[in-house]
Description:
Strand content: under 5%
Distance between the termini: 76 Å
Mean pLDDT: 77
Low-confidence stretches: none
Shape: elongated
Number of strands: 0
Helix content: over 70%
Radius of gyration: 21 Å
Amino acid sequence: MADKKEAINDKFELLKTLHEMWRHENDIANKKIAIFFTVQSILMISFAASTVITSILGFSISIIWFLSLGRTIVYRQHWDSHAIKLSSDLSEKSKAYYQIFPTIDEKKKMAWYGKVPSKIFLLGTPLFCALLWGVILVINLL
């Protein structure tokens, strides 16, 4: 009995660690997207001075940010899958104690904008900006 209790405690500790890792990746993603918007704003201001150089910088920075945020999302999914695997072995009472992700019923009650996965805008925004800067660059080179 003591071994089983110790195994459950070990799983809880591991779930707590995974949750902390997931939370830190979430903070990193939020900081990255905020810095991305700041850099894009600065580039838009400098656009009046030099359109071609600014377009090249904007395109390059957007691609780099797209890849960086993509990596963050992959790590988030990694922590998610590990937490789900670990919690699948727990009893229903234990799962309720350490519920990381919203249940299906909770997701149904969310507003439509709460159901939009963050990876859509975290990856979509830099990709859209890269395409926009690319189009501006091509127009300026013509």
